[in-house]
């Protein structure tokens, strides 16, 4: 089993946002600018309302060390949780996945809203949001998740 996996960057996020602060991402409109070699892959995506954006969280501005157990966002009012019970950026592999609203398509560019990725973020993949795969009836989250997400989007 390989210890590393080669991945290709298919695009970069352009939105002017440099802060990784966990707030107000819903106000951010982002341009996902595809590498010309992958631009044709956008064909047909405009028929969907949302896309799943898979990206590499390349910035660690506060140099927070990865931890397998921590409180979400370091908040004292949050429970101690394992990294796999959280969606934060301090992970064994800093991979982000966000369902973003498609605003429009331009040649070689996907414009989205609600993407929590800073300017320059490498994009690894794009997939159409399809409720049959991506939404589960009866899904539940613990109470702390609702408190944590207030003001995020």
Cα separation of the termini: 39 Å
Sheet bearing the most strands, described?
Answer: 6 strands, antiparallel, barrel
What proportion of the residues is helical, as a percent range?
under 10%
What is the residue-mean pLDDT, rounded to a whole number?
90
Verbal overview:
- There is one protein chain.
- The chain has 153 residues and is mainly β.
- It is built from two helices and eight strands.
- It has a six-stranded antiparallel beta barrel with strand order 1-2-7-6-3-8. A two-stranded antiparallel sheet has the order 4-5.
In short:
The chain has 153 residues and is mostly beta strands. The protein is 7% helix and 29% strand. The chain has helices at 131-134, 143-149, and strands spanning 11-14, 29-34, 50-56, 69-70, 81-82, 95-106, 109-113, 122-128.
